[in-house]
Amino acid sequence: MDTRPTILLVEDDDFAAEFAMELLSTDYVVHRSDNGRSALDAFPELKPDLVLLDVSMPGLSGYDVCRMLRTDMSVVDLPIIFLSGKVSKEERLTGYEVGGDDYLTKPVVAEELLSKIRLAINQHAVHQRLKSDMTSAVSTAMTAMTSAAELGEVLKFVRRSFNCPDYIALSREILDTTSTFGLEASVQIRGKKETVSRTGDGPCSPLEESVLNNMSTQGRVFEFGSRTSFTFDHITIIAKNMPRNDPERHGHIKDSMALLAEGADARVITLDKQVAMAKKHETLLRLMANTRDTLREVEQNLQTQRELGRTILQDFLDDLEKAFTRFGLRDAQITELANLAHHATKREVALYEEGLAMKERIQGLLKQLENAD
Fold this sequence. Notes:
Blueprint: E1 6-10, H1 14-24, E2 29-33, H2 36-46, E3 50-54, H3 62-69, E4 80-84, H4 89-97, E5 102-105, H5 110-161, H6 167-180, E6 185-190, E7 195-199, E8 202-203, H7 206-215, E9 221-224, E10 227-232, E11 235-239, H8 247-327, H9 331-372
Parallel strand pairs: 1-2, 1-3, 3-4, 4-5
Antiparallel strand pairs: 6-7, 6-11, 7-8, 9-10, 10-11
Helix pairs in contact: 2-3, 5-6, 5-8, 6-8, 8-9
């Protein structure tokens, strides 16, 4: 295969054409057209690296041909060198205006023509490489921006998920986020409270729910057909239209979806903990209410017992004094028995006061729990 650059020579003068072809054939593949129309017809198939274009030709002039070539965006920067016997500034300006890169007057000096062609082809090659590098750089930048945008959506989801009070609200946030990636998806949340399976249209069909159940055992990322599942302990997301025809974007989407699933799984764990804490809190509140009721009953019983104890002790002392008189006891004996009775009375009062102190301590603990709540 000939790797030499290709030149399209458009020249109606046979002598000038033969001169140019003989001069250039060592380093270049040269194709000649003797008029503008045939040159335009041959151009798409030849795809030359440079065009040598005579200005004065019957029919379409060189200027006409150049102007028509430049309307094709694929050859807008192709090097075109005019060859002309006209040397005026006006002719050169016209050549520049229609899109020419250089303008050589006839008779052409061989060394100058070779130098101009070599320089133009080299510059065009450099330009094409730069253009390719720029396209690649733009593509890389766009990919990076797209990836950053997808990551931004995942971060937005994490922030919004903090406000989700239950599994249904969380599943909606997940599906809203997948839709920003251009994906149709279904999600299953397996929490301690219940299992929720939903699509963007509402609850899943029995068949789709069974597929979600099956995917929950297939590992973190599992591809089947046109779908991909992303699974963690408490969640499975199935994306139905992953961009398989774009490997680079497909890879970025997979990474973003895995992050989304992981963030959602963490939120499910937090929701379950919040539910458990709410139940404990509710139980504690009921216990505190029961304790307050019990304390009120204890206080009432203590007061009743205190009054009854006072009555019993007073009756006992009265009966004891009467018994002293009947028994004919000596003064010393009476005093000793009276002291024993008063000592027993003090012990009963002290026991009652201990009960009151314990009640007050329990009430203090209840107040601390209420303040902590």
